[in-house]
Structure formats: structure tokens, C-alpha cells
Amino acid sequence: MSEPLSPDVHTLTGAYALDALDELERRRFEAHLAQCPDCTREVEELRATAAKLAMAAAETPPDRLRQRVMAQVATTRQEPPATASPVSPRAPGRTGWGVRLTAAAAGLAAAAAVLFGVVAVRTGAERDAAQAQLAQLEARYGPVAQLAAAPDARGDSGAGAHGGTAFVLASHAQDRAVLLVADLPAPPAGHTYQAWLIGAGQPRSAGLVPTDPGTGAPPLEFTGLAGASKVGLTVEPAGGSAQPTTTPVLLFDLPA
Amino acid sequence: MHDSVWPPRRTGQPEPSDPETAEQLMAFVAKGDEPAFERLYPLVAGAVLGMVRRVVRDPAQSEEVAQEVLVELWRTAPSYDPAKGSALTWALTMAHRRAVDRVRSAQAATQREARVGAESVRREFDEVAEAVATNLEREQVRRCLASLTELQRESVVLAYYGGRTYTEVATVLRAPLGTVKTRLRDGLIRLRDCLGVSR
């Protein structure tokens, strides 16, 4: 991953050490960690700090736990040493980020197929925008391809009230989606676009929408699709809001 | 934690004169040494189970998760690298991840949604404050937690003991996402300095 990460990503060390990132963010952050020795060191220290919180909650385990563990250990083969993630003692058997990216490259064809399937019925301008987005995807965003490779991946797009388009690619089986925007007017100073998943209950934030008129905005990845039927974008104060505070400037169906 | 009775049995490794550290034991465990694992067990099991119970809450499920983690510790011991942190941190990192995975399964997530509310923050924090006041180490953690700002403390407690994502924390505390991200990091850094944690 050579994608430029915002300086903001470094503040995720705390949330990461506390396992407070969702799956997508966690993987993205781990990709960043692999290239950031300072962050890695900080994460190690913060994990040691979090471990103190665990120690403070220590209790005397019942003897049956020891018996069960030892019985299971006696019949459990050890794994060979992993050469995986520099900081994450994760369960062996999960593939590393590099492997995922390699696989993702193969999925780009699928991404293109989905994208063009969706835009075939739309205007030339939208198609051009989508094609431009695809080029950025190919260069920078393997995870999107990984998502597009999901057999149930579907896309849909919508046009903004004040111009611009947004495109969502979603896999309900993987409970993941990405949102791409193009040509949205810049939000007012001190404000940002925030995406919402809208269903029966209160809207849920899908995250702040990156906008970068210069180089094209990176996709917003999000999860937690269950129950949502629409995707909306609102203008919110910088940093985002817990609930939408303005009328959506863009609203369209989440692909079923 | 460190006053356990050591079994007299030793393996064919050079004999340490002091009680073995968890890191020394892990080196034996990495070679498939079951008796060494049995000596490691009392150093880690109490913290693993206690923390998992705080996150998972249901006692039977918590024991299940703790058992999985402890067996995973055995299974993956060959991958442990002491240069990256203490054996206890390694085990507890694994344990927290497993506990969080358990509570974030789709079904659990729906049930948790309904429980999220300002009262639950207060309750979780009060329970911690109470639970950690019983010995010196806990007293130190309690004192250091108290040195954080309220938003830092509530964010860290909800994320760690509550197993919440920072997005959930932000919702519960009605604070902007960016603020919560920052508070989690600042809070942990302050805790780290207060507790004198290196790695």
C-alpha cells in the first residue's frame, strides 16, 4: 500500500491498541503500521498499558478452567512460528495484508465489471466519472477490489442536490461497503461531508467522506450494513456528528 | 500473581535460580513443554479470565473464551517474540481481541445496541472503579485512571472493558468521532506515563 495516509491516521494507535476499530479500519491501520516503526512502537507501549487494565481486573479462576485448558493442551498441536504482522499476535491461519492485496489485484477485473454494469444505464458524464474513479482504484485501492470480488457485490449511485455523484459498492455477505464521491462541491469551511446508513432506526454514521478535489478522494470503507436501505450524505461540522444535523445533499438506495 | 507455588518438576533446560518469568516460561512452552505451560498458567489465567468477564459479562461464555485464549497461547507460543512485548501483554492482547470478537458477533451487536446509553457508561465506569480498588496494583490503576480527564477516562473504559468500537463510544458519549479517537490515544498515553509502562 503506497496510498498517502492522512496525518490523522497516527491518532488511531490508541483505538487500535484497545481493539476499538472495526474490522476494515483495523486492517487498514495494520497496513499502515507495517510501514511506520514509530506507530508500531507506540502501539506496543499502549498495548502494554491496556494489559495493565486487564491485570487490574484479575480474578481467581476456578480450578475447572485449569483442568480444561491442560486437557485441551495435551491434545493440541502447536503452530509453527508465524512470520506475520509485526505487532499483532493474531490467530495463525488468517492471511496477511500483503497476501490480501495480491488477491485483490486479481479482483480488479471484477471491480470493473461491477462498476460498468452499474454505469451502463447512466449518463456519459457519470460514466466518465466512474471510469476516472476506477483508474484511481486500480492505482491505490486494493481493498475495493477485494470487496468487488465478493459474489454478491452490488453497486449503485446517486446524484447530489448541488452537483456531484456518489457510488456505493456493497457486499451484504461480507457486511462491507465502499463509498466513492466525485465532483461534490467543497463543504463550507469548518464542515465536512458525513455518510449515513439509513434504515428503520436512527441513521448510523458510516464515517466522514474524504474529499480531495486535487487528486480525487479515497473511498470511504464502512461496515454494519444490516437493516440499512439507503445511503445519505449530509454536511456536518468538522469531526462529524453523532446524528445528522442537516438534510441530506445526496440520498440513494444501498444496493440490496 | 507472583507468589504462586512452583511445581518442583523441571524440564531439561538450564535451571533458573529465581522464579521463572513468564517470558522464560514462554521460551520453554514454544518448544512444546507442557509442564512449563502449567507453570505459566497461574501467571496469566487470572488476568485473562477477569478481563474477558468484564467484556463478555456472561460467566459461562467468559470461561469459554478464556479457555480458547489460553489454549491459543499454547498453540501460538512458537510465534511469541519477547522483543515486541511481555508475555503477559501478548496473552492479554490476544484475550481482549477474542473477547471483543465474541461480543461483536452480529447477533450480540443487535442486543448491545439496545443497551447502549448514558447510564451504561456510568455503570461500567463505576463497576471498574469499585473492582480495581482492592490491592496495590489495582490501586495504582485506579489512581492513574482518576488522573485522566472525564472524557478520556470514559472513552478508555468503554472501549477496553466495554469492548466498544470508538464509533460506539462516540455515540454513547455524544462526542464527535475525531474527539474520541484523540481521547483514546491521549488517555492511554497518560495512563502509560502514570503507570510507568515501557513495553
Summarize the structure.
The complex is a heterodimer of chains A (256) and B (199). Chain A is an alpha+beta fold and 256 residues long. Chain A has helices spanning 12-17, 23-33, 37-56, 63-74, 97-119, 124-140, 142-148; strands at residues 154-159, 165-171, 176-182, 191-199, 204-209, 220-223, 228-237, 250-253.
What's the SSE blueprint?
The complex is a heterodimer of chains A (256) and B (199).
Chain A: H1 12-17, H2 23-33, H3 37-56, H4 63-74, H5 97-119, H6 124-140, H7 142-148, E1 154-159, E2 165-171, E3 176-182, E4 191-199, E5 204-209, E6 220-223, E7 228-237, E8 250-253
Helix pairs in contact in A: 5-6, 5-7
Chain B: H1 22-29, H2 34-56, H3 59-75, H4 87-103, H5 106-115, H6 118-131, H7 136-146, H8 150-160, H9 166-173, H10 177-195
What this model shows, in words?
- The complex is a heterodimer of chains A (256) and B (199).
- In chain A, helix 5 packs across helix 7 (142-148).
- Chain A has helices at residues 12-17, 23-33, 37-56, 63-74, 97-119, 124-140, 142-148, and strands at residues 154-159, 165-171, 176-182, 191-199, 204-209, 220-223, 228-237, 250-253.
- The radius of gyration of chain A is 21 Å and the shape is elongated.
- With 256 residues, chain A is of the alpha+beta class.
- Chain A has seven helices and eight strands.
- Mean pLDDT of chain B is 83; it is low at 1-12.
- The interface between A and B is large, with 66 and 86 residues.
